[in-house]
Every structure is written in structure tokens, then in C-alpha cells.
């Protein structure tokens, strides 16, 4: 793909601050001369019976057709009779791996300045099965499901990612000392895949110990792969080390090579429409999408401009302690391109 | 109970460094004029059929009889046909609440200097049910069990603890947006108990968000109460904030008011017998045991001496970057008494 021929991609601006930060992405990409033909989809106002969700069938079809997409924050309406928007996307598009690179941003000070890791989360099963039963009054059970197929798939993705991104080590995170069979199967699959990648160091770390080590010395970690709930927890913990979900990108890899990049922070309804939102997470997610499209030069260039703008520190949005508007921060990035 | 009349308490020195750090506790307590008649029990070398574990029935009986105990690290032997030592204690003694105060130690520098919180973990059910099945080849399920009884019990303990320890806020940690029924029941029980404690602020925090907030700003938290696995994860994370499991105490509250204080770090076989181990976690756990026995003055005095010794920084064991022996560090504490 040449950077000047238009690429089709699905865009879910999402709710709350979503549309503003999506505008910022469009602006930056256009300025960098990346021509994307965005197929924009909004969350509907009624449940689509084909998806059982406020997301329409057409929206899902768009991602399937384009193979790539970018997603802002979506707030699932409260009520019964429909599925969570995020879970609908993961299930329907078979988004089996959630990839979240997490690194200290030069110039944005937190308690940690040496974080550079990637969490890879199994995204379809585990504790998210949705299977829960009340056995007798006052006794409720929920089922965690681990399958060989999904575990191998995400392990394969993690090792392949490590290899193609110059990473040295993959740590499988688990609690197999307690959940011997479920987490045990997950580890067994990771070990099988590890055999095929002798150049990558493989280790297994128990989740409680992993969290302790992450807060003491995150530089110990490189690529982490884990079942769904552990990934949910650890990816947010890691984001916290470098400043929070407003600064960390993510992308979801799905069946047939689909890539849906996603800002995982909330829709921040309190500041929506006020030109105050920080578009960094969505911008960095868009950069992940560009890399998926093999537009590495453009990705590097845009990434560099974002990092430089944050490091300069002159233009910062309120969440980072500054007072710049979304549009001024975006303009500063464009100027740095 | 007067501090000079001997109190009976069970002591499990445990494995590895266990006996050395238990010696340190005895020394410090004796020096502080706390006279305890220790009923010492060791982990056996064969499985006791009555407990299905290397822990004997007599050991369990001793804790039941004395009502209080102190436990060093125990390494469960590898192999089949027996239960984990820790899980045997929790199950057989009905140790329903694991209490871990976690605070920044003056003079021992980490990235955080403002931690002062207590995690209270449900210790008997949840993800630790041990119920796992292979459904078909390659598909394994494990059952998480949440009961109204255990949830109410631990919630009741947490609020009572907050009230009697001058704490203002209880945060229930959950993932009820996904596990609506199981974690939903846990929250429902917490809410019911919260009603009875109008003077304590009650809030609910989703576990992923909780971990992010803990690493960004742990001062936001006071008392945290949660199901078993979340407690396992978050208590270790919190220990990491202040230096690790070598510095943080814990105690387990069981049926009939049993209190088993416990150092939750490992048995460190590599340094066992070398007079190098750090006894701080076991010492601080013994302090928790003294408070349970209402020996608050003695507890304060010993606690003060431990804190002062660490703050002075002259005597520190190798894990804290010093080169003092266990006995020299212990002597320094005794001198500070
Ligand atoms: C919103 C919630 C359902 C979701 C999850 O638990 O997966 C979120 O925390 C995330 O990480 O994307
Ligand atoms: C050793 C292990 C079984 C135990 C647990 O998971 O509960 C430990 O991590 C703890 O926190 O006491």
C-alpha cells in the first residue's frame, strides 16, 4: 500500500469525547499525508436484533470488509436485553488478542521512567464467558472457560509479536498453582508455542507476584501474555505506571487478520464537547493501525510528533496538568510533523 | 490478659528461613517482656490422612485450642495426593478474612511514601474452590463460587475493622460489570453491611481501575475488601508499593475468633540457615497477633522499635540493601525497645 492511495478503514468515533478525539486523529493523519477513506459508524439508538446490541450489523460488516478500524470510547447504555458494546465487538469480530504497548513517555513524569512492555490479553473467553448460575439461594457460581484453541492462538500471536518487534522475552501470567487445570492448560499451550521460538526467552510468572514485581521494577518485563481477566487487570495497572489510559494505545487482533485499534479510556461525559479531551490514546492507537497497514514510515513520523509534543510540555491538555484545548494540542502535533 | 501472665499461642516456624525469623520474634517478644508459651508445630514429613496434608491434625487442634497463632513461610511439597499447606489451614480453621495492613515505612524509600491502607481478602471461596473440569478435550472450566454467607462475613469484618481502627472508608473491589451475578452478590452483601455503618464511607471500585489508581495514587485508598483472587492480587501489589512481602504483615481471622498471624513471603531456601533473612514481616505479624490479644501497649512498643530500626538504617538485612545478619538486626530492635 502506498501512503497516498486511499485506504478504507472503519471509524467508530464513539461517545462523549469520542468525536472530538476522532477529529484530532483525522487532522493529524491528513497533515501527515496519510489518506484514509474513513467509513464512519455510530452506535445506534436502538438494539439491532442481529447483534443483540446497539451496534448494528452494518457496523460489524464494515470492519470485516475493511479489515482495519479505529474505535473511540463507547458507553454501553444501561438496561437489559442487549449486550455490552465492547463485548459485542470482541465476540462478533473474533478479536482474540488485545495488544497494549506501554512505555514511559519522555517528558511526562510519573513515578516510573523505565517502563517498556507490551501486554497481550486473550480477549474472548476465560472469566468473560458470561456463564453464571445461582445454584441455591445465596450460592452463585461463574464459569471460567479456557480452551486449547484460544490459548494457542493468543500464545502464537504473542511470540510472533515478540519476534517481529525485536522483543526478547515472553512472560506467561497465570495462577496455575490454584487453577491447575484451566490456567494449567493456558501454560501448556504457551510452552508448546515457546518451543517453536528458541530465540525468545520464555518464563511463567504467577499473577500476584507479577503485580508486585510490576510496581517494584517494571523494567523486568518485556512481552506479557495472559488469560482475559488477568490481562484486563494487568494492562490497566501498567497503564497506571506511565500515566493512565489517556496515554496508552491498544489494538485488537481478530479472525482473518482484522485489526481494530482502540482507545480504552472512558467517554468522559463531563468534559465532552468542551474541546478539552486528550486525544493521545486514540492517536497512538491510530499509529498502531498504521503499523498494521505496514505504513511504518508514516507511523514513525506521527508517533515522533506526538511524543515530541508531549515532551516539549508547552501544549498539554487538562488531564496532564496543562490548559491546552484538544485542537491546540492537535495543532502542535501537526506543527511537529 | 496481663502482659506478664503467660499466653498460649501456636507457632509454626515453617520452612527455609522460617525457624530463624521465628527465633527473632521470640527474642523480641521476650525482651519486651511479653511472655508467650509457644506451642511449636512443624510441618510433618508424611501426609496426615485426617487432614490430607503434611499438616497434622494436632497442629490444627493446637490453633483451635489456643485461638491464636503465628505462622512462618511453608513450602508445600510437590506431588499428588495431598493438599496445599496454606489452603489446608484456611479451609480447616475457617480462616475467612486475610487482613494485610500496608504502609510506607519511614526511612525505607520506595517510589511511594504515602501508602496507608488495609486489604481485607475473603479467604475461603471464589476462584479457590478447587472445582475444575475438562468438559471435552481442550476445553476446561473452573468454578468460582460466591456465597452470601461468606461475603456478608468478610464485609462485616471489614466494616467492623474500619470502625475499630479509626478508618474512614471501605472500598469493595469487584468486576461485577462482567461477573454480574457472582461479584454482584458480593457487592450486594457489602452494600447491606455498609447500611449499618453510616459513619464509614462506602464505595465500589472495579478491579482493573483499582489497580490503576493504586499505582497512580495509593493514598486514595483506606480499607479495601474483596473476593479471594482479587485479594490475592491486590494485597501483593500493595506490598510491592512499600517494598515487598518481606516488610508487610498479615493475619487471618477464622471461625470462633481464631487469629493466625502470618508472614506471607516465601521460605527463601537459598538463604535458609545463613542468618541473612529479614524477620520484619513475621515480627510485624506478631504485633498484629498482640493487638488481637488486646496487648496494645506492647504491640505499640514493639512496632515502634521495628520501625525505628528500619528508619535508622544502620542495621538492615541484605534484601533491603544492607549487610546485617538476622541476629544483629534483631538485637538492634531489642536495643530500641
Ligand atoms: C468495559 C469493560 C467491559 C472492559 C473489560 O473488562 O474488558 C474494559 O475494562 C477493557 O479493558 O476494555
Ligand atoms: C501460595 C498461594 C497458594 C497463596 C494464595 O494464592 O493464596 C499466596 O499467594 C498467598 O497470598 O497467601
From TrEMBL, chains A, B:
An annotated GO cellular component: mitochondrion
SUPFAM superfamilies, per database record: Isocitrate/Isopropylmalate dehydrogenase-like
Requisite cofactors: Mn(2+); Mg(2+)
Pfam families the UniProt entry points to: Iso_dh
Record PROSITE patterns: IDH_IMDH
SMART domains assigned: Iso_dh (SM01329)
Cleavable signal peptide: none
Family: Belongs to the isocitrate and isopropylmalate dehydrogenases family.
PANTHER family reported in the protein's UniProt record: DECARBOXYLATING DEHYDROGENASES-ISOCITRATE, ISOPROPYLMALATE, TARTRATE, ISOCITRATE DEHYDROGENASE [NAD] SUBUNIT ALPHA, MITOCHONDRIAL
Stated name of the protein: Isocitrate and isopropylmalate dehydrogenases family
Organism: Macleaya cordata
Lineage: Eukaryota, Viridiplantae, Streptophyta, Embryophyta, Tracheophyta
Amino acid at each position: 500500500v502506498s501512503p497516498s492511495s486511499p485506504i478504507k478503514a472503519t471509524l467508530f468515533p464513539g461517545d462523549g469525547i469520542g468525536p472530538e478525539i476522532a477529529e484530532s486523529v483525522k487532522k493529524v493523519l491528513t497533515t501527515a499525508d496519510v489518506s484514509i477513506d474513513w467509513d464512519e459508524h455510530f452506535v445506534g439508538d436502538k438494539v439491532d436484533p442481529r447483534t443483540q446490541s446497539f451496534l448494528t450489523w452494518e457496523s460489524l460488516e464494515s470492519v470485516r470488509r475493511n479489515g482495519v478500524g479505529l474505535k473511540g470510547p463507547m458507553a454501553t447504555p444501561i438496561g437489559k436485553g442487549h449486550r455490552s458494546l465492547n463485548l459485542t465487538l470482541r465476540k462478533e469480530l473474533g478479536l482474540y488478542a488485545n495488544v497494549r504497548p506501554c512505555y514511559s513517555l519522555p517528558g511526562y513524569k510519573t513515578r516510573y521512567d523505565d517502563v517498556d512492555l507490551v501486554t497481550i490479553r486473550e480477549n474472548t473467553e476465560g472469566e468473560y464467558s458470561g456463564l453464571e448460575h445461582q445454584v441455591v439461594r445465596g450460592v452463585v457460581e461463574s464459569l471460567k472457560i479456557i480452551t486449547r484453541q484460544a490459548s494457542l492462538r493468543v500464545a502464537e500471536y504473542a511470540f510472533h509479536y515478540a519476534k517481529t518487534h525485536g522483543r526478547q522475552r515472553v512472560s506467561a501470567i497465570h495462577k496455575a498453582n490454584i487453577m491447575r487445570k484451566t490456567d494449567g492448560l493456558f501454560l501448556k499451550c504457551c510452552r508448546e508455542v515457546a518451543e517453536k521460538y528458541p530465540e525468545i526467552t520464555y518464563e511463567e510468572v504467577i499473577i500476584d507476584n507479577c503485580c508486585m514485581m510490576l510496581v517494584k521494577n517494571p523494567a523486568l518485563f518485556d512481552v506479557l501474555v495472559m488469560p482475559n481477566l488477568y490481562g484486563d487487570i494487568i494492562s490497566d495497572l501498567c497503564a497506571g505506571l506511565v500515566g493512565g489510559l489517556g496515554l496508552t494505545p491498544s489494538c485488537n487482533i481478530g479472525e482473518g487478520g482484522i485489526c481494530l485499534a482502540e482507545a480504552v479510556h472512558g467517554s468522559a461525559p463531563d468534559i465532552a464537547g468542551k474541546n478539552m479531551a486528550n486525544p493521545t490514546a486514540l492517536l497512538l492507537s491510530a499509529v498502531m493501525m498504521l503499523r498494521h497497514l505496514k505504513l511504518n514510515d508514516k507511523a514513525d513520523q506521527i508517533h515522533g510528533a506526538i511524543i515530541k509534543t508531549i515532551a516539549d510540555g508547552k501544549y498539554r491538555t487538562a488531564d496532564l496538568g496543562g490548559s491546552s484545548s484538544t485542537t491546540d494540542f492537535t495543532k502542535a502535533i501537526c506543527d511537529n510533523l
